[in-house]
Amino acid sequence: MNCSATLKSIDPATGEQLATWGVLDDTALERSLALASRAAEHWSGLAVEQRCAALSRLADVLESQREPLARLITQEMGKLHAEALAEIDKCAWVCRYYAEQAPQMLADQIVATEARRSLVACQPLGAVLAVMPWNFPFWQVFRAAAPILAAGNVLVLKHASNVTGCGEAIARLFTEAGFPEGVFVHLPIEARRVARVIADRRVAAVTLTGSDTAGRAVAAAAGQALKKCVLELGGSDPFVVLEDADLEQAATTAVTSRFMNCGQSCIAAKRFIVLDAVADAFTEAFVEKTRNLQPGPPADPGSTLAPMARADLRDELAGQVQDAVSKGARRLLAGGPVEGEGWYYRPEVLTDVTPDMRAWHEELFGPVAVIYRVPDEAEALRLANATAFGLGGSVWTEDRERGEQLARGLSCGCAFVNSLVRSDPRLPFGGIRDSGYGRELSLLGIREFVNQKTLWID
Asked: What does the pLDDT read at residue 320?
């Protein structure tokens, strides 16, 4: 491979460099795309049962290597080791789910018409480019890859540069599971070259998980090339607590949802909207539980808050908080960047955040929570929907019918009652507005990247 070493992996817990990685030059990039194109012809011709058998083998390989793979995640992006183990387990789950369900999901759909036979057939598109983020460096890739590959497409991965080691490890897993060469291709390239790959005639479609800024750029490139695009972008999920909620359960889950993965999750609860009647009690419990979080080395079982993944991300979060405080927001719990090695950030809880502050409009991608007090359910719904984002949201109440009704009113792609927002292979996942479009997972996810072809036989 003719390349120059420009990508770096850095341990977020220490700031020390772990490895450098080569960036593909134009010749190597051309070879990689040609390889994926040739593989697409072969892979699409296999029976779906053969592709699903490969996914089952991949799940086996993941499970057999869960400890070293989890350690890699912890080293390269700073995730707590227990959370990294759970991430690997979830990757195996999505592989097994599609291995079991894809044959039925992709089966011909017979439609009764005046023809002798009419149907809709699901056929693969070819090579799909996946532009993936660093915060769940294995799950985000497998969430996209399992349905895309089961459907008969091949996948070309452009991973986030700071988790290039994870990208390389994932490519190795596909080889070890017996996938044909080129069915999964990892492209260590700079972000500026993504548009060129999207424009390449051998790439049929693109899926991206990332920021709304990255989403706009990829959507523009895909639109220019007239190619299918699925975007899963940022979120500012509301966590609505009604007066009849189980406050202990709500506060405990709120802390988990906000600070899991050090708050670096698009579907983390970020805005806690609480009715006046229980606002004092909820806030007291939430702040106390947050205060008990213990930042520390992510490999240490005693740590309950990992470092942030990059120094620039920590600086950005601190700037958003400072902007809010300078304009009148109050810290119910003061924290911020921790001096010393690594990119640790002690959690903070804000209130009195107003529309003139960045924290009102922007996603807070880190361990900072905002609590809002509202007089009634109607104002809670209005405030929950007063955002450009629309990924997830949750409602907390003992009255499940009331909770479902309010959840239906949330402007988002997935709403939960008395549970934290999460992705699940059995259910579609995605957002609306600035949180993107299209769906991953479930039946809807596997059909995003197929040609749903009408066949009429008379």
From this structure: 98
Per-residue pLDDT at 5: 65
Which residue type sits at 37?
Answer: S
Intervals of CATH 3.40.605.10 along the chain: 3-233+433-457
What is the CATH number that goes with domain 237-417?
3.40.309.10
Residue 256 clears pLDDT 90, i.e. is over it: yes
- Kindly list the distances between the CA atom of residue 280 and the CA atoms of 38, 253, 286, 371, 381, in Å, as whole numbers in the listed order: 62, 17, 10, 11, 20
Q: Which of 76, 232, 362, 448 is labelled catalytic? A: 232
Rounded to whole angstroms, how far apart are CA atoms 261 and 263? 5
Does the pTM exceed 0.70? yes
Look at the chain and count its residues: 458
**Whether residue 266 lies in the annotated active site:** yes
Q: Which of 122, 266, 412, 414 is catalytic?
A: 266
Query: Quick one: which H or E segment has residue 284?
Result: helix 276-291
Helical (H) or strand (E) element with 379: helix 377-384
**Is 288 noted as a catalytic residue in this protein?**
no
Task: Provide the pairing of β-strand 17-24 with 3-10.
Answer: antiparallel
Q: Which residues in the chain are classed under CATH 3.40.309.10?
A: 237-417
Is the domain 3-233+433-457 a CATH 3.40.605.10 member? yes
Dist CA 298 CA 133 (whole Å): 19
